[in-house]
């Protein structure tokens, strides 16, 4: 699941909507919406995020947060380390290899180290 997919599912659940109902209102198939929620589709485009914002009547700050979540929600990330240090390449490769086996608390610690004081949805 991606950060955007998690938030989309929460918005749907808060309003008691089925996947089919919400998909119809947003002009997409239930299959697409389910894949987006589960992280089996790439990051949503700007137009789709705007439809979600309008559909749920999301207020300004929350709308910005939703767009930030969409921006960091590509489930198949490619990291280009060309020109970076050998340590950066090692880090990228080890993370790619080991991320599936990391416990949630280790992922949170890594995120905290990478983000510093920024929220998780920040670029």
Describe the structure.
- This protein is 62% helix and 0% strand.
- The chain has 123 residues and is mainly α.
- It folds into two domains: 3-71, lambda repressor-like DNA-binding domains (434 Repressor (Amino-terminal Domain), Orthogonal Bundle), CATH 1.10.260; 78-123, no CATH class.
- Helix 1 (3-14) crosses helix 5 (60-71), helix 2 (19-26) packs across helix 3 (30-38) and helix 4 (46-55) runs antiparallel to helix 5.
Level-1 CATH class name of the largest domain: Mainly Alpha
- How much of the sequence is in beta strands? under 5%
The mean pLDDT is 90
CATH fourth-tier homologous superfamily of the largest domain: lambda repressor-like DNA-binding domains
Number of helices: 7
Number of domains: 2
The N- and C-terminal alpha carbons lie at a distance of 19 Å
The poorly predicted ranges are none
Q: Could you give a quick summary of the protein structure above?
A:
With 123 residues, the protein is mainly α. The protein is 62% helix and 0% strand.
